Amino acid sequence: MKVQCVICDKIESIEDDCLRAKRLRNRKLNMYLCNPCHERISKRTKERHQTGNFHLYQNKRQKSSLI
Q1: For residue 67, what are the CA distances in angstroms to 4, 59, 60, 61?
Q2: DSSP summary character for residue 63
Q3: How many helices and strands in the chain, by DSSP H and E?
Q4: pLDDT above 80 (res 63)
Q5: CA 23 to CA 67: how far, in whole Å?
Q6: Which of helix, strand or coil describes residue 9?
Q7: Residue 48: how many CA atoms within 13 Å on its side-chain side?
């Protein structure tokens, strides 16, 4: 399966049977990042975490009254 990195537009090929390919086929919102872009983003994110100014805001789920 041919995939394209959303940041650098590099085209790579991955195996059709791998879990990553299945997720890309079935969930259209998943994006593919090549390894250099993924490493760069994770490194910078870890640096921001260490500064203490990085906050990850997540929505709090409310319990359903029906269940």
Answers
A1: 42, 20, 18, 14
A2: P
A3: 2, 2
A4: no
A5: 30
A6: coil
A7: 10
Provide the token pair at 24. 């890309």
Within 8 A by CB and 6+ apart from 33, the residues are 5, 6, 7, 41
Task: Return the DSSP state at 2.
Answer: E
pLDDT in tens, 11-62: 999 999 999 899 888 987 888 999 999 999 999 989 988 988 887 787 777 7
- Token output for 28: 């259209």
Structure tokens at 35: 């390894």
Q: Alpha helix locations (H) across the chain?
A: 19-26, 35-51
How far apart CA 21 and CA 34 sit, in angstroms, is 13
Q: Which two tokens stand for residue 17?
A: 């049977």
